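Reply to dn_fold:

You asked what the input looked like. This is it:
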Amino acid sequence: MLWPPKPEITVSDVLNACTKWLDTQDWGEDLRARLPELVALEERYRTSGEAGQLLALLVAEAGAQREDSDRKRFHAVYETALVDRAPGRKLYDALMAAAVHNLCPLCGYQPVAQLDHHAPKATFPLCALTPLNLVPACGPCNQGKSNKLATEAGEEAFHPYFDDLGAERWLFAYVHRANGGVTATYFVRPPDSWPETKGRRLHHHFADHKLAERYAKATSSRLSNRRRRDIRLLTSSGPEELRASISDEALSAEEAHPNSFETALLHGLTACDWYVNGGMAVG
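and this is what came back:
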């Protein structure tokens, strides 16, 4: 996954962009009066995230925010003034455009389609308009993400604006024969240098977003696209030349993105004796 940079857009920018629409609502002025409270919460969100204490902040905030009297109004501002009205939509689109290569940071391979509330707006309405809480995501990652607040640190969702996943490889693939063809099984292995809790969070992220299944489905098209090329190279130059060629691809992919599913697949192909000796011709 490739993390986007922290947004420079602030909650003040968002509320200002929604002012025209808020002026059409009887309660618009009341909501604007809460801006200092939202700004203070945004700063606590930032400092907690940077200190690795965001879960503690959210646990402390959950009860009060869930019962906030303006809960439905904050939701309406997000869903109508930010998503559907021009001034707000410009900021919404700018937040989505921050995604690296337009790829969802949560899965790393599908295009961004919407914004995900890291802290779900159903529980945290006062964070519904906070850009630090809005992460560009693909549809499956946004829709499949649990809306439940983690109950312990090992289940805390990764936050692309705050969590550092490093440059070491932790995503791997085992290439093998299945159903008369070639497939890959994906898995994560946290680096030894990671704290135990961070490793558990990685396993939780991988399972929560069903990445093993989604990557496996995406693999078939990647293998189909390279099948003819790999057969030709095997026939003309032999298995070790084919292995060397795939290995070179893997290293190039790793340099660009060490934990993309393409990088994992290419390394898996390189290590698979069955594949480089003609397995790609099966099926």
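The mean pLDDT is 94.
Hope that clears it up.
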